[in-house]
Structure formats: C-alpha cells, structure tokens
Known about the structure:
This protein is mostly beta strands. The chain contains 1 helix and 9 strands; from the N terminus they run H-E-E-E-E-E-E-E-E-E. Strand 1 and strand 2 form a beta hairpin.
Amino acid sequence: xxxxxxxxxxxxxxxxxxxxxxxxxxxxxxxxxxxxxxxxxxxxxxxxxxxxxxxxxxxxxxxxxxxxxxxxxxxxxxxxxxxxxxxxxxxxxxxxxxxxxxxxxxxxxxxxxxxxxxxxxxxxxxxxxxxxxxxxx
Length: 137
C-alpha cells in the first residue's frame, strides 16, 4: 500500500498523498502531521517543492487542519470548488490540491483562513535550505 505514484518530474506521491493532491481529497480532521506544529520555517508543496506559506502566518483555528491567514506572494491559486460553495486552493506552480480558503470568519486581523491538508505540504525548518522547485518535465 506504500507504492509510490509516478511523478513525471515532480516528487513521487504515496497513494494517500495522490488521493488528496491529485484527486482533490481531504485528510481527516486532526490527523495531519502539521496541525499542531509551531516551529519556525516554510511550508512547501509536497508535489513540486514550491514555497507556499510561512510559519508566521499559521494560526490555531481549532478546525483540525493547519490554518494560515496569508500565503507567499503568488503561491496559491483559488477556484470555485466542485460543490459550488467553497473556494478551493491549489499550488500555483503545479496545480496540486491544498484545501480551501474561507473569509469573513473573524479569526485573524486578515479575516482569511487557508485550511490546508498537511499531506499536501512538507515543512522545512528555518535555517535549512529549501529544495529546488520541480517541474512536470
């Protein structure tokens, strides 16, 4: 069950990672490895290594998934979700599914919550070099 999914230049994904990142799935609430992480660093796309979020923008929303009130400039694209109600967020570089963005909840001064699946990201601690961003080919 730990077979890797071929990647065409991107990082190979486990079936669980592919289900969320490629098939727009969702990991169960309160099960992700980064929900409680408070260390300084950068969150990058698990599929292509593109930097997405800074730890300084992470906050505790008690929703069961890592929450950020800002993204790195141009890192995330927004699309109307298939359900027609929510706004999906994807990695700008590779299009991998990250989660959803919510506005108007009043949780932070920026009034924005990027609710992100831990499985869609990797964490790079401050002081460690970021890996190169990968392309499809």
